[in-house]
Amino acid sequence: EGIRYQTSPVPRGPEPVQTMTVNGVGIYKDSEHPDEAWDFIQFLAGAEAQRIIAGELRGVPALRSASDALVDNRYGVPGLEAYLVGLETAQPTRTASNTYIEKAVGIWQERVDTILDQEHERRFRQLQTQSDGTVSAEALQAYRDEMAAFVVATVDDQIPRLAADLDLAFERADRGEAGTAQRTLIPIAIVLLALVALGGYILYVRRQESEEASHGGGRDAGWAAYICLSPWLIGFVFFTIGPIFASIALSFTEWNMITAPRWVGAQHYADLFTDRYFGLGIQKTFWYAALVIPISTIGGIATAGLLTSNVKGADSFKAIFYFPSLFTGAAAAVLWVNMFHKEYGIINRFVTALGGLPINWLDEQHAFYTVVLMNVFWIGGATIIYYAGMKQIPRSLYEAAEIDGASTLRRFWSITLPLLSPVILFMVIMTTIGAFQVFTPALFFVNYPSEIGGPGDSLRFYAVNIYDEAFNNLHMGKACAWAFVLFGIIFAVTMLQIKLSKRFVYSEAES
Known about the structure:
Blueprint: H1 34-45, H2 47-55, H3 67-71, H4 100-129, H5 137-173, H6 180-214, H7 220-250, E1 253-254, E2 262-263, H8 267-271, H9 276-307, H10 314-322, H11 329-339, H12 346-353, H13 367-377, H14 379-391, H15 395-403, H16 408-436, H17 440-444, H18 462-472, H19 476-501
Helix pairs in contact: 4-5, 9-13, 9-14, 9-16, 9-18, 10-14, 14-16, 16-19, 18-19
């Protein structure tokens, strides 16, 4: 007979454990109609509006006089008296102790809704194609029965996955006390290593300065330079170096930005190896970078090559290619979401015009690759840089190769790419750093910041995990630890690229 959904409160105990969302309204201080706004607020807080809200099952009424509307709601859902028990003694709490539970339930609901929506659309379209514009009562009833059975089967099939996600949520929140090694020994070892590295760097700088001084360099010019640079240096120390050291210190604490930080040592770093989202964030970010870097590099070089081949109207093409790069990450993400929207997006308009079916580009299956495609939108910036690099290559080299009978492809492979290799190295490094910090598209692909990383976990990039832990779960210490690890990853990848570049990058100083 289908599925019958029922709601019930969390079991009661000596401590409040039920989470409730509270809605509030206020009057803007510069409102042009404060009296009318106050009348509206009084109406919303009055018994009439509270009865409407309760009867529609939009929430528990704020007035006891409107509680009967919740019990005798218009949908006939029974058993809601339980929400009214002990309402006078309800106490608000700052936040749930385990913020992972609500997110696990939300992801599961979104996943189930997507499955049901896709099946409904498929069956309904099939029902329409089998009829001549009219649907008989028998066919409609069969459709309803089949959908009801599918709903039951889908929920039954997805319940074990919800149970597994909830178990994971409890595991992530239930962390034991840090041991002596994590609280004391490992932090001391990290500090000692940092001091040794800093001492080695200072000795290296002093050695370089002594070599420069032996070649006639004076110290007065150095102090003059520092005095001129002092405004920037002061800002750099207080607004860059200072926060970096503060975040490193906070990474050894548990801090929710409300209470005082609590020292936990290296526990956050030790938990990385058992946290599923850490591995998922690394996987998503590396795969994103592996796709984005070729798009930016190949697309930028190809378009720059076309612009340098004396194409008619090259200046106009340069403006057209570069114009999308003027959009910020937020503006481009909003534009992209609207372009790829299933119902009104222009991309699906083209798909349906060609006889295809609308595609949900923003669902769990397609969202990741939709974000990757955004980088095609931004190749204009890389194109201009590659174009400037190609213009610096002496024309005489191409003329000599042409006289020797080299083809266009041969000239590009043997002259353009080697001489452009320093520019390519710079762009690859900058693109890599940007790819590892990808965040903005994931924020605008969801309806609320608390859902970031969705749909599902398709956009669970590493930087998304940092934001999620810091501002959604209020684990600022853990977020600082993750951010420091991200710095280490980017530094290691960048150094590896520079090390490998010595084999491929052309340098006039070495030639």
